[in-house]
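[agent] plan:
  1. take the single chain provided in the ticket
  2. run structure prediction with default settings
  3. attach structure tokens to the ticket
  4. add a short note for the reviewer (M.T.)
[agent] executing step 1
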Amino acid sequence: MSVPPGPRYIASLVSQCVIPSAVTYLSLRVLCRILGVDFPSSGVVVVSALSKPLLFVIQHHLQPYIDGRAAKQLGAILPPMVEGTFATAGEKVVQCVKTGYPGDTFNVWMEEYGPTYQVPSLGHPMVCVFQLLFDITD
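[agent] step 2 finished; step 3 output follows
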């Protein structure tokens, strides 16, 4: 009998959150023992708890460079990134929701950046692709 996909997915999420903190905690404990330093347990717990958010911030800032290098190796060109941050992009969408249709923001970005562009989001950027209408009967 196999494990259903729901518990499997939750276990993968928990492991992504717990493993960096556990590795940091154990590494600090071993380092303190090897060096003979008396580091307070509360400090070890705080540093361990902050390891995942710190990794997220580091990855968020390094990911554009990693993606750019990978694209260059493949001879690809990355689509342009919408200027601003996740928060400013979200504000523009919310403003369009208040005044009309939320898709208007994406149309404005399409006119500015072309039919393919990236929108900043938490984690990896969201790639938006607009395909122009064409006749497939030819």
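[agent] step 4 note for reviewer: The beta strands are 116-119, 126-129.
[agent] ticket updated
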